[in-house]
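Lab meeting, item 3. Inverse folding demo.
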């Protein structure tokens, strides 16, 4: 699947990339390679396979949970600018 120049320019615009003209062909070739790989993966025979989280049948050996630090919530609450119901209040940073 060959990517067209218009598609490449749109992708560069959406990704906020300043794409020099001399790099257009290189990027188009790279994207064509990626799209070809994705097409191969989409054609892989997966009917009847069980989904898995990891390719190896391993179980994690986890350490037991234990408290390693002293509760400092009271000390932190005393120096916090604002608290409500035991939670720290912070200024809104995202509109």
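The presenter then showed the designed sequence:
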């Amino acid at each position: 699947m060959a990517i067209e120049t218009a598609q490449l320019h749109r992708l560069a615009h959406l990704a906020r990339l300043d794409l020099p003209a001399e790099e257009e062909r290189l990027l188009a070739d790279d994207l064509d390679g990626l799209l070809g790989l994705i097409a191969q993966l989409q054609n892989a025979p997966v009917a009847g396979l069980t989904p898995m989280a990891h390719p190896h049948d391993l179980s994690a050996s986890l350490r037991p949970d234990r408290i390693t630090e002293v509760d400092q919530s009271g000390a932190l609450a005393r120096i916090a600018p604002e608290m409500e119901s035991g939670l720290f209040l912070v200024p809104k940073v995202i509109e």
